[in-house]
Amino acid sequence: MSTLDSSMLNVALPSIMKNFSASLALTEWVVLIYLLTITIMLLVWGNLTKKYGQEKIYTTGALIFSIGSFLCFLGSGIYLLIFFRFIQALGASMMMAVGPALIKSVFPQEKLGRGLGMIGIATSLGLMSGPALSGILIRWANWRLIFLVTVPIGLLVYFFGKQTCQPRNTTSPDAQIIKHPFDSLGALLWACAISMTLIMTTHATAICCSSKADSTLFIGGICLTLVLWFVFALNELRQPYPLLPVKLFRRRFFFMAMLSGMLSFSVLFFVLLLTPFYLRAVKRLSADQTGYVMMALPLCVFFVSPIAGRLHDRIGAKIVATTGLGICLVGLLLLTSISAVTPPLQVAALLAVLGFGQAMFLSPNSAAALAGVNHQQAGVTSSLLATARNLGMLTGTALAGLLFTLTFSGLTGGLDMKDFQPEYTAQFIVSLHKSFQAAAVIAAVGVAASWWRGKTPA
Q: What architecture (CATH level 2) is domain 2-163+184-451?
């Protein structure tokens, strides 16, 4: 449900920008507020599962997501739409925080990769159907309808989930709900640090401004961001029950799984954010045609994900996951060669390469992190995996928008993407190439992190 929503919205961004006459930087916040809220709240829900249980948080999240989706459909302005996306994200974060932990509670460890591979199928179904469905709705109706698609799904998940997701037998020592003080100060510092980091990233153009006051404000913001991260780290090290379980990150297999997971999704969202603009603005494709091209990526994930999960169960995560990120790197390098005359079918093929690599990486990486922790740590580990992914989406979206905007603005004398005209095609392609080259560097770091993960404890 969450991937269906995200993939539909990526295709709809150009239409939303045009409908509200908003800049690319402001339109980005329709995506960014969703990712920011999820990134902040995942750790919170992961910790609260110890108090309220995974099942209750999961089903409540489905209901809140549905309400938020319906409100997004009603949003009458860009700022109102952004606020309703915040509500929608609260529900999504509740489901995402505990989803893999529920899988771990059902599948035995030797089949955990297979279980998460099945989740990969569900994820790819959302990603695969989203672009085409969004394109059809935009072309023949209105972009607002994309938010109604997930409402009945969410309500079904809620009502059936209340019946089927019953709490486990809490007489088992391994399944007992543990109640301990919640790290509220850590949660507040985490939210402030993440938010300031995003604001500084999306408004980095201020440092290029001629205004001394703007530059001073920007530098002050950077200093405040660093202080927030320092105070957060200090608080977590002193807390008996920290929001962020620092001890887990001292295990190399765990830290590298989180780092490579974050980098892989950062790379993915460089492509998912910018490619629809390329297809709509440069290739002049309709919304539904854009959706069909974008489907190539999740289509590959659909077929490869279960295979990758089974490979993990046989040979482990290191080789499979690292190979996957290596394929992602190759796909990005190939994407830096696209031009104004590149056939859409060729673009789809390059997206399929990227999707193949992502599918090879995701299930084994998640399984490796979950396999090395006990049941009591599964909830917070699940939320950390989702946090790493969403932090990657967040940074990828913010950096892609920043790099593209800075380059395009510099080449066109200060114009924004909303001012694009066919005569600026050459400048658009250069900006796109530079953005994808930066993503390739991030992918290379991810390959190294995945290879250095070490062996997952038995």
A: Up-down Bundle (1.20)
